[in-house]
Amino acid sequence: MSRIALKPSLQPELFVYSFPVRVYFENTDAGGVVYHGEYLKFLERARTEWLRHLGFDHQGLAREHRAVLVVTALAIDYSRPARLDDMVAVSVRLESLGKVRCVFAQEIRRDDEVLARARVTVACVTGDQMKPVEIPAALRRKMEAAL
Questions:
Q1: Which of 29, 57, 85, 128 is the catalytic position?
Q2: Could you tell me the pTM of the whole model?
Q3: Coil, helix or strand for 16?
């Protein structure tokens, strides 16, 4: 007998964006293992594509809102190595949202195996003087919907 939920339920995985990344030779050391700094590039690509998924891009934010998103803090835990030719999924989940800063929880997975987990704090600043500025209202609305 199948069970059907009678009430709608919130499924947190619906609020997680996932971006596929192939591991290339340029990402690895001589042993074919991904160099630790390359994971930061994978995380950045996924956040950039998440932003595009919301309908925004870095150049547009700078041009139209004079706002730039910069990483102010990052903590990463490496669990298992990614290797040459692996296809990994890099997830982005908005963990918290302030007026100027937001925090992302990100994972890099190969199939069901977690390779790395990161917590990334991003701030919105002016493009010219790099001073804190509120996240543009249109972007904030989209981000709030992702919480």
A1: 29
A2: 0.88
A3: coil
